[in-house]
Amino acid sequence: MEKKYVKLQTSIPGPKSQELLERRNQYVPKAISNNIQSFVKKAQGAIVEDVDGNIYIDFAGAIGTLNVGHSHPRVVRALQEQASQFIHTGFNVMMYESYIKLAERLCKLAPGNFAKQAAFFNSGAEAVENAVKIARKYTKRQGIISFTRGFHGRTLMTMTMTSKVKPYKFGFGPFAPEVYKAPYPYVYRRPDGMSEEQYSKMIIEQFEQFLVSEVAPETIAAVVMEPVQGEGGFIVPDIAFVGRVREICDQYGILFVADEIQTGFARTGKYFAIEHFGVEPDLITISKSMGAGVPISGVIGRAEIMDAAEVGEIGGTYSGSPLGCRAALTVLDIIESENLNERAEKLGNRVVERMQILAERFDCIGDVRGLGAMCAMEIVKDKQLKTPDKETVGKIVKAAGERGLLLLSAGIFSNVIRILMPLTITDEQLEEGLKILEESMESVFAIDPAL
């Protein structure tokens, strides 16, 4: 008999979760969103149990922070061992070896045959903020270029660099100065009748014109690019575009920063997604799956650039905490020993294959795309007009949650379903999750499963 991993004991949310929800609504502001109205009790691998005993399959991975899965035993042991020795000293008060070991390993893993250094922080937004500071210090320029549909964080600088207005920017201005948004490829939404090759050429030309019409390249410190846009809808650029941006950066002395916060640590089948594009960044920002759920982030970069800031100019109280460093070192061990880069490729191929089958059944699926295990499908009202369908995505995500599947949306129009399952998920768990996704879509469209 086929094993079922999802087990629902109550409606979602159950009575214990409902009680906690009442307290949450009383004491926690509504501005902090919640994808599913349940409360976790425990989690292991790709399986999550809530306080009412309901068991879910996780296709969200805490928004891409759990590539090695929930509570991986090796991470748990490392954290327990570290906590028994010391929890925190502050690296700028008394140093610890794990910080040095982590910096050394990441510098060796990062692309580029040149001397590198690494500095650690707490969140992805902090990593981007510090990459901007380092770039400005090194180049003695102020301008920063990010891209349309990009997401880089919620702090003042990173919110400014982010494209999506609602919910991330609306009402929170004024924003930081000297930030410019350049065009980024979106092949699915290219003009009708235009080939992918023609579209690629057009976007490159638009970027080149941008440096004439919008801002002088001599004033730009850095271009910050997600190798695959995450919150923007899992949009993969073509190699020619990324390569040309790198060439322009070299031409004008602009630093190329790869924002790998969601794409890093084996998610796309490489340690860093930028490796797919044959480009060597000057700086790389990292976080999310770096710490297997423990807050830690970092910037890796050319040694002469990283060393441009003076003593005390970057850092913070909890930056590169001992717990975060130990977790990150263990994550790197797991990726290597469990071949998670290869696993990501296999998982991604299977997810895309199933999504393409779904696209044959459901007219609402306008596009299926991804890189490695960073996969998504875009939901539209009309395949010809490509009208975004945010409402249907919300219904699918809700229906999936009610059936025991944790799922996320994305996209500038909030009309993309993205998959960020732990890379340690079993084949059986993956198939059950994909089946629930299909059943959720059937329920939303009132389609007989037999058809």
UniProtKB/TrEMBL annotation:
Superkingdom: Bacteria
Molecular function as annotated in GO: (S)-3-amino-2-methylpropionate transaminase activity; 4-aminobutyrate:2-oxoglutarate transaminase activity; identical protein binding; pyridoxal phosphate binding
Pfam families per UniProt: Aminotran_3
Gene3D superfamilies associated with the record: Aspartate Aminotransferase, domain 1 (3.90.1150.10), Type I PLP-dependent aspartate aminotransferase-like (Major domain) (3.40.640.10)
Pathway assigned to this chain's UniProt record: Amino-acid degradation; 4-aminobutanoate degradation
EC code: 2.6.1.19, 2.6.1.22
One annotated GO biological process: gamma-aminobutyric acid metabolic process
Cofactor: pyridoxal 5'-phosphate
EC class: transferase
Keywords from the UniProt entry: Aminotransferase, Pyridoxal phosphate, Transferase
Reactions performed catalytically: (S)-3-amino-2-methylpropanoate + 2-oxoglutarate = 2-methyl-3-oxopropanoate + L-glutamate; 4-aminobutanoate + 2-oxoglutarate = succinate semialdehyde + L-glutamate
Family assignment from sequence similarity: Belongs to the class-III pyridoxal-phosphate-dependent aminotransferase family.
Protein's recorded name: (S)-3-amino-2-methylpropionate transaminase
